[in-house]
Amino acid sequence: MIAVITLILILSFSFLITKVATIALMHTGLSRQSAQFQARSIFTGVGYATKEAENIVNHPLRRKIVMVLMLLGNAGIVSVVATLVLTFLGNDKGDIPLYLRLALIVLGVISLWLLFSSKLFNQLLSRIINWALHRYTDLTVQDYAGILHLGGEYKIAELFVKENHWMSNCTLAELALSKEGVYILGVTRQDGSYLGVPGHDTLILTGDTVIVYGRSSIIKSLLQRRKDERAHLEHLKGVQKHQEAKTIEREVDQQKVEKQQEKEHK
């Protein structure tokens, strides 16, 4: 029975460790999906050789997080294996039957999975971890998703520029993406060099990876846009949609300003 309880506790700590690492990596600029994938793969020792993994190794703060996670992951996996052996091979007198031990393990794993999949529990846990990271580490705690209002109408996406893409071999001034409400946050060249907040004279080349920020619907259209006769029409549609959305935003904002001014005058 002690071995079963120990196994469940180790699994609980493993879930918690990967959760902490995921949030810590998110605060260094990784998206939630990327941070979660990297944390789990590193903790389990899978070691996917991806471009994101290279970005983690080349980032000093991420590298420190990963080193700690690797050590904890190695100890955790060894502990789980050892405890499993004790759980299934232990035959102490008075111990519970094997089938009951197996049922308790399955029930414990399902309970942990449901708990850590709970949205409410994850929100509470995230707040606690954020507070702890801010209080006990030098990690700059920034909720980038919240700051940029991601997950709703706005999003950030990586756009790989193929040879026949509309953006290929054009300057940002020629593309006039800001008129569609899309802004270029950075450009990664084929050789890995990075241009942050590029200017209007920046030329987008075939093979570049462009980081764009804007409304989801416009970005979806931009990702699929090709060099053909429809490209200009799609650009004009994007401009029109952006102008309509901005008009609505200005009207709503003006109403809020007027209400606020009325409260201040009272």
Give the number of DSSP strands.
6
Number of structural domains: 2
Q: What order do the SSEs take from the amino end to the carboxyl end, as H and E?
A: HHHHHHHEEHEEEEHH
| Biggest sheet statistics | 4 strands, antiparallel
User: Proportion of β residues?
Assistant: 5-15%
Secondary structure: helix percent: 55-70%
Shape: extended
Give Rg in angstroms. Answer: 25 Å
User: What is the tally of helical segments?
Assistant: 10
Strand order of the largest sheet: 1-6-3-4
What is the end-to-end distance?
69 Å
| Low-confidence region ranges | none
Helix/sheet category:
alpha+beta
Global mean pLDDT: 78
The gist of it:
The chain has ten helices and six strands. With 266 residues, it is of the alpha+beta class.
Would you spell out the secondary-structure blueprint of this structure?
Layout: H1 2-26, H2 32-44, H3 51-57, H4 60-89, H5 98-117, H6 119-136, H7 144-147, E1 154-160, E2 170-171, H8 172-175, E3 183-188, E4 194-196, E5 203-204, E6 209-215, H9 216-223, H10 229-265
Antiparallel strand pairs: 1-6, 2-5, 3-4, 3-6
Helix pairs in contact: 1-2, 1-4, 1-5, 1-6, 2-4
